[in-house]
Design brief:
- The complex is a heterodimer of chains A (136) and B (92).
- In chain A, helix 3 runs antiparallel to helix 4.
- In chain A, 28% of the residues are buried.
- Chain A has one domain.
- The mean pLDDT of chain A is 83.
- Helices cover 60% and strands 0% of the residues of chain A.
- Chain A has 136 residues and is mostly helical.
- Chain A has four helices and no strands.
- Chain B is mainly alpha-helical.
- Chain B has one domain.
- The longest helix of chain B has 27 residues.
- The N and C termini of chain B lie far apart (53 Å).
- Classes of the chains: A mainly alpha (136), B mainly alpha (92).
Chain lengths: 136, 92
């Protein structure tokens, strides 16, 4: 009886924590003022928000006697993919010059790698020159 | 099952619905392309939470696969959008 009450409270607490963190992530996404800080807010939703709700689902399943650990799969997947998608979105910001403060120049190269264009893609024609068709 | 869990579920459904709305506002308003991609990513993460929560409310394990697939599709679509913005092409 005491165990049931404890587990019930634990599941309810985890569900509420998940909801609060999801809300915090979205409020931060809407409220922060610049693109790069906005990248930081939804990470709360993707780690603690989803994590707590999945933990609640897991505890509830074990309590009902049909427990399994497959909710951990989603948590692991989120933990692996969240940095990758954040990196890609940060690269989009950097690439399109949408940052409030421009990044400093790297010491050795002259541009950052994401802004670098390979030489064969550069347009080396003089203004007014006709385009050169590649040889067949 | 019990009153306490049902109360918590009600609260969290409200929280996630509100966060979906706020994310939608950022998706519509977002001044830059990166913000829109980030809002789509956040929408898919919130959808995963919502599906797992519906599974808890219905006391069923069936919705777990749906949540996993939404999580995977959200990640893949985010990477595809970013590739398109960065390179003008998804698979070179």
């Amino acid at each position: 009886m005491t165990m049931d009450l404890f587990l019930e409270g634990l599941v309810a607490l985890l569900i509420v924590i998940g909801g609060i963190f999801t809300l915090v992530g979205s409020v931060g996404l809407l409220k922060l003022s610049r693109p790069m800080p906005r990248l930081h807010a939804p990470t709360k939703a993707s780690t603690l928000g989803v994590g707590a709700i999945l933990m609640a689902s897991m505890v509830l399943a074990f309590w009902r006697g049909e427990g399994s650990l497959h909710e951990l799969l989603i948590t692991c997947f989120m933990f692996v993919t969240a940095p990758i998608s954040a990196l890609f979105i940060a690269k989009v910001h950097l690439h399109r010059g949408e940052m409030a403060v421009a990044p400093p120049h790297p010491p050795k190269d002259d541009v950052w790698a994401t802004l670098d264009t390979p030489e064969e893609d550069l347009d080396l024609r003089k203004p007014g020159e006709t385009p050169v068709t590649p040889a067949e | 099952m019990t009153d306490l869990i049902d109360l918590a579920l009600l609260f969290t459904f409200g929280c996630i619905g509100l966060s979906l709305l706020l994310t939608m506002l950022r998706l519509i308003a977002g001044p830059t392309l990166g913000d829109r991609v980030l809002a789509l990513d956040t929408l898919s993460i919130n959808a995963v939470s919502l599906i797992v929560l519906i599974g808890i409310a219905g006391r069923t394990q069936l919705l777990f696969e749906a949540a996993l697939i939404i999580a995977m599709l959200g990640f893949v679509s985010t990477v595809a959008y970013c590739r398109f913005a960065l390179r003008g092409d998804i698979i070179e």
